[in-house]
Request: fold
Amino acid sequence: MPRLVRTEGGQWSEPVQVFSNTDEVVYVPDITTSSWAQWHEQDFKERGLYFTYVYTYWRKRQVTVRELVYVNTRTQQIRVERFLKSPVQIDLRTSPPTISKTVANITKIVQSSIEHFDGRTLQDAVQSQKALTLNNLNVIQEREQAEKNIPTLQPPRLINPVSPIYPADAWAKKITEVVTISVLVDAYGMPSDLQIVKSVYPSIDAAALQAANQYRFEPAHNTISGVPVPMRTTIDINFHAQ
Reply:
């Protein structure tokens, strides 16, 4: 059974149990913290969306499976992603009771976390940082583009990297390399369709994909309208054997 679980930021925390029966026990990372609410408040209040890791411990097999679950509380739809497997879409209105009860319990915790959060959202902080760091050249360029009415795209920007877990077999070989990954960043800043561009070693490639899947971005956007759009970019993940 999991004693510690990884958060979205790659940190370890004590798990929160959200469901249990004779076959399984389901946990999530600690989603009661202000840092978690800071990231999710805007999406939850405006669109009824949130996501979290879910850890399911199967009693008979004595194994734990980790999944990334995206929940839309308004449409009652969830998307479940498991490493190196295709995503699964589930309608909560027709799902098995174990799934619907689990999601309902998680949503209660989310609602409580959001209701008690009174700070500034991460999206607000990112926007403020952009405003503070905008130099005169960027201002002039945006004005010139607006006058010409030629839309331009600002590529996605990484705002939350995650350190990869160095595989034991690669560590034994003292492999120090860089894995390059092509990733499609959607309009919400979430990575998808990850593809290895520069391969290093099978277990290192897999660790790099797992880390990149947890990255969070400021999405690409039209510099005139500000509308976020999906865009593909590349990221380098370093592995140092020291």
The chain has a mean pLDDT of 87. DSSP finds six helices and 16 strands in the chain. The CA atoms of residues 156 and 220 lie 4 Å apart.
